[in-house]
Amino acid sequence: MADLSGPTASLALGTWSHHREGEPREAGSGAVEQGPVIELHAAGKTYRTGSVEFEALRGVDLAIRQGEYVAIMGPSGSGKSTLMNILGCLDVLTTGQYRLAGDDVGDLDEEDLAAIRNHQIGFVFQQFHLLPSLSAWRNVELPLTYRRVPADERRARATAALERVGLGDRLANRPGELSGGQQQRVAVARALVGEPAMILADEPTGNLDSASTEDVLGLFDDLHAQGRTIVLITHELEVAERARRIVRVRDGLIQSDTLTSGVAA
């Protein structure tokens, strides 16, 4: 696998690298010993339809440190998708607090939230969300287009991101010319191209066969080993166990929060 390390990430609301020289790293895990990137305090989310209210999250407390690889699990209706939307700044809390890189997300307007989504979070979805008419490198460059990065730099960075996920020889291929696993690699490259603080993956193997699933999970393993912060939403235990920590959600609450057997002592 190609080297998946990247330069320091410059963020909209703060600046830190995914690994700073001289800072300790947990042996064998890629985790960095420092303050949380994600902090949820008494986080609640209530949806209202007419006179009916539904509590999707109920007083959730959660902290995720830079460099951690965390899987969030739960059955349908458990609140894990709502939690993902909150972490990804796709939705906002009804009650409580969400701090990302030390900044209170609740104080931000939609324009600021969009900037966070574009600069600080790399999204990987089950459905890939690639544009079928565009080549792999043009799909990958899209987040940089929204940042108004010059064309030459966009092409260079998209090419480098695809090379980092092992698709340097597929730059000109459109999604329909790629396998499911390769399409998901393109999606991961797109998530990486902006050097985000966090990779947020929502059921990233849900549409893949077993061989492609192993391929993509191996890529996440490599990213974690290089110090990336990865939050993986899944309902599959075998997928979750590739992470170093599993947070189980049920009825809008955190049911358990445990380290996996793969964590170095």
Report what the structure shows:
This protein has 265 residues and is α/β, with parallel strands linked by helices. The chain has a domain at 68-92 and 120-259: 3-Layer(aba) Sandwich (Rossmann fold). It is 29% helix and 28% strand. The chain is built from 7 helices and 12 strands. The protein has helices spanning 80-87, 110-119, 136-146, 151-164, 180-192, 210-225, 237-240; strands spanning 9-10, 15-16, 36-49, 52-65, 69-73, 95-100, 103-104, 121-125, 198-202, 229-234, 245-250, 253-259. It has a 6-stranded mixed beta sheet with strand order 8-9-10-5-11-12, with helices on both faces. Strands 4-3-6-7 form a 4-stranded antiparallel beta sheet, with helices on one face. Helix 3 (136-146) crosses helix 4 (151-164), helix 3 packs parallel to helix 5 (180-192) and helix 4 (151-164) packs across helix 5 (180-192). The chain starts with 8 loop residues before the first strand and ends in a 6-residue tail after the last strand. The relative contact order is 0.20. Residues 1-33 have low confidence and may be disordered. Keywords: ATP-binding, Hydrolase, Nucleotide-binding, Transport. Residues 1-31 are annotated as: Disordered. Residues 38-263 form the ABC transporter domain.
Structure characteristics:
single chain, 265 residues, alpha/beta, Rossmann fold, six-stranded mixed beta sheet, 7 helices, disordered N terminus, transmembrane transporter activity, ATP binding, MacB-like_ATP-bd, ATP-binding, nucleotide-binding
Order of helices and strands: EEEEEHEEHEHHHEHEHEE
Tally the helices: 7
* CATH level-4 homologous superfamily of the domain at 68-92 and 120-259: P-loop containing nucleotide triphosphate hydrolases
Corresponding CATH architecture of the domain at 68-92 and 120-259: 3-Layer(aba) Sandwich
Termini separation comes to 26 Å
Compute the average pLDDT: 85
The residue fraction in helices comes out at 25-40%
Note poorly predicted spans. Answer: 1-33
What best-fitting shape do the alpha-carbon axes yield? globular
